[in-house]
Amino acid sequence: MAGMAGTPRVLRAMNDRAALELLVSHGPLTRTQIGELTGLSKPTASQLLGRLAAAGLVRATGNVTGRPGPSAQLYEVNPAAAYVAALSVAPGWVTAVVADITGAVVGEERVAAGSVAARVVVAAVDGALGKAGLSREELHGVVIGTPGALDPRTGELRYAPHLPGWHARSLLGELGDALGAPVVIENDVNLAALAEQYDGSAQDHDDFVLVWVDEGVGAAIVLGGTLLRGATGGAGEIGYMPLPGAPLARGGPEATAAPDAGGGFQSLVGRPAVLGIARGLGLDPADVAEALADPHVVDEVARRLATGLAAVVAVVDPELVVLSGSIAQAGGERLRVRVEEELTGLALPRPQLRISDIEGDPILTGALRTALVQARNTVFDTG
To answer: At residue 165, what are phi and psi to the nearest 5 degrees?
Structure first.
């Protein structure tokens, strides 16, 4: 019977967590509404709110007015219960945002990338914290989205030779020590896929592939709702995939001096390739949006994209393929339709094809969601 002693405490912790998640998803609620949504009695809901208020996790925020009877007190998650930082790393810059536990962004900073990765990350986080009027001591976690991926066996960043200064095995420890909070480094395309899974085009799918087409090319593979990482963290590095018409990326990613060098799928559909297609047609576009305004460029990019997608689809057989990145956004629906047409007959599976509809930076969105989930798992655990 000794094992039963902790049951009331466990049940209270489960009820606390359920109420907090409801307040995060619904916004301010009354005691009665919380009771109805959780199935708790009014006295139990009152005790729960008192307990969470004493712990600094919820606070009163006005009253419900405009209806018969006495006004009811509204409660919300206390935004100051925890703060997190999310970062997106690109070859030329690093963007950091700081958000409270509700997900509201309270500070943002962008700094030029340098050769000392830890110094750049700390500068970006400190800048965002400063704009929010916060200190490092108030951070509960940091998630950084970068090209490449951490090898789980060595802790070293791989598949990102164009990020000098990011490959030290001690980087995670240095960042954690400097910021005084847990730090996670995650592949940027994986984070974009998480953003699509929770907030974007893939919300209704457990099996999908996100294909990122930008300066570089990569993919994130989600099967059964779970992100596929691979033995070295390199699952989805389709930019190096050999295809007809592309030079081979011999030597692999560690031998590649620049994101668009070395051959493979990336050399066919990355940003430099799209601009090259346009120039080969006698155009002189200022950017990929201008290049993809020409239907002949769209046709050629779609043909190349479909060839690479056919290989991915034949192996993974996803329900859905989401096209993301600057080239997908610039090509829009016209590019999607042409890729879908070109894909017909190249692979037996016929997945749905969608363009990402995440507003803003999907990598930053995914990093922030990941940081919030991790912080809430800790802060909302009242057991």
So the answer is: 90, 0
Tokens found for residue 157 = 């960043």
What is the pairing mode between strands 157-158 and 217-223? unpaired
The Cα-based distances of 17 to 30, 49, 379 in angstroms read 16, 11, 10
The answer to whether the beta carbons of residues 154 and 382 sit under 8 Å apart is no
The pLDDT of residue 69 is 55
- 138, pLDDT greater than 70: yes
From the centroid of its chain, how far is CA 157?
A: 18
Dihedral (C-alpha) 211, 105, 96, 332: value to the nearest 10 degrees? 30
pLDDT digits (tens, 9 = 90+) for 189-210: 999 999 999 989 999 899 999 9
DSSP-based helix, strand, coil % in the chain, nearest 5: 45, 20, 35
Burial of residue 378 (number of CB atoms within 10 Å: 0-12, 13-18, 19+)? exposed
Which residues, in sequence order, are bridge partners of residue 88?
A: 95, 145
Instruction: Find the helix packing angle between 295-316 and 271-280, rounded to 10°.
Output: 140
- Dihedral, CA atoms, 134, 138, 140, 146, nearest 10 degrees? 30
pLDDT tens-digit map of 294-344 = 999 999 999 999 999 999 999 999 999 999 999 999 999 999 999 999 999
